[in-house]
Structure prediction request, 766 residues.
Amino acid sequence: MGTSIEDDQLAPRAERAGRPWLVTGIAILLGIAAIAAIAEGVWLSVRPGQVGPGSLETLLGSGILAALLAALAHGMWMLRNWARVSVLLLLGAGLLYLLVTTLFDVSARVFAGESVVPLGGIVEVLVAGLARLSAMGAVPGLIMWGLIRYGAAFEESPAQRAFVDRGVRRLLFATALSAIIIVFLIIVFTMTQAWQSIAEIGPQAMLLGTVWRPGAVIGAQSGQFGLLPMIYGSVLCTFGAIVLGVPLSVGTAILLAEVAPPFIREIVRPAIELLAGIPSVVYGLFGMVVLAPLIRRIQVPYNSGFGLLNASIILAVMIIPTITNIAEDAIRAVPRGYKEGALALGATHWQTIYRVILPGARSGIVAAVILGIGRALGETMAMIMVIGNSIAIPTPLTSNPLTLFLSSARTLTGNIAVEINYAAGVHRSALFFTGVLLFLMILLVNSLARFLMRERS
Amino acid sequence: MIPRLGEMRLELGVAQEAKASLGRRKFAQKLAFALLWLAGLLAVALLLWIVGYVVLQGVRVVNLGFLTTRPAGGVSGEGGMSTTIVTTLYLVLLTVSIAAPLGIGAAVYLVEYAGEAQRSSRPTAALIAVARAGVEILAGVPSIIFGLFGFALFVSFMKLKFSLLSAGLSGACLILPVIIRTSEEALLAVPRSYREGSLALGATKWHTTVQVVLPAATPGIITGIVLSIGRVVAETAVFWVTLGGSYRLPTNLLSSGRSMALHVYMLASETRAFDKAMGAAAVLIVIIVVLNLIINYTSRRLAARSMGR
Prediction:
């Protein structure tokens, strides 16, 4: 914005420039538009063959439009700031629309074919797009520039200023509520969609049922929608991920917070943060291409390489950043005096860490692990890529109970993702029930973690 | 004399024991620290293994032709990834332009206006507390739930079908808490004196916010937006259930499309063209690394600036 506070407020009215010709022009244009709108409305409604119930609405519509335009024209003529802002907003929206459509148009032409190369055509399309943009955007752009340039000429009374201030406050309050409104909408929509299955099958049958067979919805026979296999799948691979991931991440957190020299931390911490940003499909792909063949080497019948072990390893890597970051912060938050006191009593550094610092950071570390559990429960795409997606309750493949982890399974998240795109009727509703269940589990886990973290501070 | 001898013996014993115990304790420390280093090394090694493997395998198929040819579609797995790159770009623009105004507005309210409003009336205070809780809850919601929600509201209820718009709206819900939180932090970091100076000059609250506070918080807000761009680029589950997955380029907001991450998933699980999937994944990783570098750079500069103040 070119207008500074001083221009707007402090310059005496007499020193301000008179009405710039540009503003006069805009006001006249708006006035003409208003007259044109009312004229068109009158013409359309009195035209022969157009007399009917529709004509009155046409007249009313163009009357309102003309009134608005006339009000804007009057506001511009009288140098009112609200008129300036309205015209700016309208033109801005128009320009944005033009920009977006041109962008779509250009990229549609560039990328529509099989291939972009040879590059000869691109320049042509780009030039054409730019030409269109500058041809259609020139006049509105010029007007906007002028309005911003001559912003000081417009006046705004203190009452208007207060009005804007109040309006903005309300608007911002509305945006502040957006998050809770989305949470509310999520609950309403998943619940209403899940309602059919709750009514027809019953929550108990779904929660405790051991058979998931949605395909049987043929004729009168209804499918079976037991979620227990997926609950087992989710819980088992989260458990596996915690067993593998927690020692690694808490160890790394202690290392970074207490043991390692600062330059190591400077390198390792961004690396761990990078781990958090990598798309889950990349982890899934890695699990499919690298881990599955490795796991398949374990000589057990029916071991496909895809299953709980694969999923647990991938999940363990995925929760490392969450746990490490929060646990490290918790360890750093332990007061320095604790550590110094222990060291002064003759304890070694490790004894201090183990007996003083870790107990002090306990609730924070537990919260970190719980948040890791939440993250693991919610992971979807990587899971459906590596877990095998069988709908049976996972069982050990041989008499050795550890081979349970070689068995294929399916998570609650995976259940939704695998079937939602083609499900209909009760089946779809049951998938939404899966979502409700997942949502409640995660809500519980996260609020537990939040409670622990609040207790600490 | 005898007690004194006993005392001496006792002292000797304590000293010996202390010496032995010190040795034991030092050994325990060495062992423990070795394990800690092992854990750290393992974590970093896993990262290097995964990223390194995918990138090294991926660059074999990435060339100009791969980047500029569109996928062939179907189960063949042939073709490149040009349309998926453009679709991802569309999604980023769409989600950010929906979520950024909402998120920044929410953060501005929660930081600049909420305190005053809380004191003024009790219902408002309760509503603000609920709004804050909403941000917290939304931040913890897993992405597949956002997908389900988008599927129920935008795809089915609002009849937008599997489209860019459905996916963009669902994605905006996903990144909204990220933008609110980072913007809040950025606004909180702006010194009080800036606001007081501006208000003392007679500017209104809104003027102060727009012309003084927001410009000072811009780098932090941009960091948040870059972070959420990373989330959108990496996101798959939401777009899997809202975007449709067509390999063609979306021609308008209501046409279906396929993002890069979705392309990786579909190649890997539906076509078994693992080499192409690796190529697309490598491109994804490069983008994420670049975004992370940007974030690190800006936040380091921010830290340096606030130190210098």
